[in-house]
Amino acid sequence: MIEVKGVRKSFGDLEVLKGIDLVVEKGEVISVIGASGSGKSTMLYCVNALESIDSGHIIVDGVDVHSRDTNVNRLRTNIGMVFQQWNSFPHLTTLENVALAPRIVLGKSKQEALEIARKQLEHVGLVDKLDVYPSRMSGGQQQRLAIARALAMEPNYMLFDEVTSALDPELVGEVLDTLRLLSDEGMSMIVVTHEIGFARDVSDRVAYFHEGKIEELGPPSQVLDNPESQQTRKFLANVR
Amino acid sequence: MGSSSVFTGFQFSDLGFLAEAAGRTLLISALAISIGTFLGCIFGWILSVTRVVGDATLGVVLDVFRSVPLIIQLILFYNFFPIIGFDLNPFAAGTVVLVFYTSALVAAVVRGGISATPSATRRAARSLGMTYWQDLRYIVWPIGLRAVLPSWAGVALGVLKDSALVSVLGYVELLRASQILITRTQEPFLILIIVGAFYFALSFPISRLTARLERTWQYD
Amino acid sequence: MTMEVAVLAMLLGVLLGLALAMVRMSGNRSVTWFAVGWIELARNTPALLQLFFFGFGLGAFGLHLSPFMIVLCGLSFNNAGYLAETFRGGFNAVPPTQLKAARSLGMTLGQSYIRIVIPQVLRVVYHPMTNQMVWSVLMSSLAMLVGYRELAGETQFLASKTYRIFEFFLVAAVIYYLMVKLILVGSRLLSWRLFRY
């Protein structure tokens, strides 16, 4: 379970998170929508301790993420993250990209790590690209590689930060299909996205972010189809 | 004052002597950079047009200028003319060698600049009915200039500093002047600092300016 | 001898240059000015002047270095100044998101640098480093002016003994040319093995 309690965060004078409360149950898929700059990506970075917070708490499976005593590196192996810019490691082959972290972070043997990597690449449909360098692959393939790389750590949670925003339109589908697959398998996920249709299909709940706060939170049938908030309605009208 | 003062301390008038020498450094560098750049542009263009044939002929010759220490080039050239019965003064010899040295460096830079314009862009220009020369003048030149200006400035600054080597031929530029003063005053530390400051004052403003140009061009 | 002093100066230059680049990027005011001063002096004054400084300049304080040490110090000082800027550019060329991605997989800061950032920096700085190595060899010829008998110095010595300046320096020129070509070919071969992406 991920518990976000009263989280505040500023960059200089700008307060980007103004008290966020959110609970993600095991196996739940939550989509986060909202205008850019509304703080949704920042919240993801805070959950993974890639950004610090000013006040509040984030607790993942009972571990306080921002406590001094927490081993963030161990914590991060429990939370996979995929970025907007896929950030594949250009100097490693596809297989090496995925096998590196299980070996040096989880301490698996080289054999085991390669086995895990092969399994996860098969999972996302990249078995035919094992020895290819990322520069030879399309954005969609590189994004699926990034997903496999995160899955190889066998995390309990996955965070997706606008993973289709930087892709050409024809490549969006293959990445969303991979996300759907994960959700069908019962993975707990927070998905920051602009794909409203995807959010409706896959999410258990949808959160609408507006100016650093959660304006509305509930099942897609409520937030997306019958929003209570004026702001949400306005945003959805602009997106469509 | 008697025989004890063969060596005299550093005097204020010596600064004038150094300034004059700095002027000669500037003169020989300016000549080398301007003529060398002009030749370098032509050589670079020839290389980019002739490709393999150019590489195997002109390219090889220019490469020699880049692969042999400048100081050896200077000594070789200076000593070559007496052999065939000419006498060349240090200034002329130094200038000629620096010009060719500069042109070799500039040619490599220019060649890179010409290839900085994608062939699709050039084809687009030709498809609008531009002639080859119009394409060079209005498309390749402005794009290439922007791409190569920082490296060209690097070459120019390099030549300014490398001109110090002409001192080995006996031409009294800044570095040679410092040696003369050191011998007379026996105050090497002070004089080297002053001469260093002269070079720094010539070179640093240009290097800062190009660094700034490069930064602003990157962002638009 | 030429190769020896050039290679040593290059190795020292790489180490000092890395240190200078790190200091400069650290943003610590009190030490940054030292690094900036070194870098700008090395880049904006003639290499020969730098050699003279380690020769006569330090001599004024009674510190007399051997010709070999003068050349080694001078060239290392110069290489370090240029390489520091090369390394800084290399680190800036790797997007900061690469570090974030590595950290998000649970790698420590050290692991992220060694496995992810540095290999990519190496690729960016490889070509400029090769050029600097060539420069190091070419600059080592200046040693003849401070009395060290490397290739150019030995040539001058022999030439002045026999008065056949032109012939001797022509041979020296050929040898320098071959050394430079050797470095470039070697570097090309090595890069094929190192960078397959």
Descriptive report:
- The complex is a heterotrimer of chains A (240), B (220) and C (197).
- Chain A has 240 residues and is of the alpha/beta class.
- Chain A has helices spanning 40-47, 72-77, 94-104, 110-123, 139-151, 169-184, 196-202, 220-223, 230-239; strands spanning 2-11, 14-24, 29-34, 55-60, 63-64, 79-82, 157-161, 188-192, 205-210, 213-218.
- In chain A, strand 9 (205-210) and strand 10 (213-218) form a beta hairpin.
- The longest helix of chain A has 16 residues, at 169-184.
- The radius of gyration of chain A is 18 Å and the shape is globular.
- With 220 residues, chain B is mainly α.
- Chain B has helices at 12-50, 52-67, 70-83, 90-114, 119-127, 132-162, 174-185, 188-219.
- Mean pLDDT of chain B is 83; it is low at 1-5.
- Chain C is mainly alpha-helical and 197 residues long.
- Chain C has a single domain (2-142), classed as Orthogonal Bundle (MetI-like fold), CATH 1.10.3720.
- In chain C, 83% of the residues lie in helices and 0% in strands.
- Chain C is built from eight helices and no strands.
- The longest helix of chain C has 31 residues, at 109-139.
- Classes of the chains: A alpha/beta (240), B mainly alpha (220), C mainly alpha (197).
- Chain B binds chain C through residues 64, 67-73, 75-76, 79-80, 83, 157, 161-162, 164-165, 167-168, 175, 178, 182, 187-189, 192-193, 195-196, 199-200, 203-204, 207, and chain C through 40-41, 43-49, 52-53, 56-61, 134, 138-139, 141-142, 144-145, 152, 165-166, 169-170, 172-173, 176-177, 180-181.
Q: What's the quick description here?
A:
Chain B is built from 8 helices and no strands.
Provide tags for this entry.
heterotrimer, A: 240 residues, alpha/beta, 6-stranded mixed beta sheet, 10 strands, 37% helix, C: mainly alpha, MetI-like fold
List the helices and strands and how they pair.
The complex is a heterotrimer of chains A (240), B (220) and C (197).
Chain A: E1 2-11, E2 14-24, E3 29-34, H1 40-47, E4 55-60, E5 63-64, H2 72-77, E6 79-82, H3 94-104, H4 110-123, H5 139-151, E7 157-161, H6 169-184, E8 188-192, H7 196-202, E9 205-210, E10 213-218, H8 220-223, H9 230-239
Parallel strand pairs in A: 3-8, 3-9, 6-7, 7-8
Antiparallel strand pairs in A: 1-2, 1-4, 4-5, 9-10
Chain B: H1 12-50, H2 52-67, H3 70-83, H4 90-114, H5 119-127, H6 132-162, H7 174-185, H8 188-219
Helix pairs in contact in B: 1-2, 1-4, 1-7, 1-8, 2-4, 3-4, 4-6, 5-6, 6-8, 7-8
Chain C: H1 2-26, H2 29-44, H3 47-59, H4 67-93, H5 96-104, H6 109-139, H7 151-162, H8 165-194
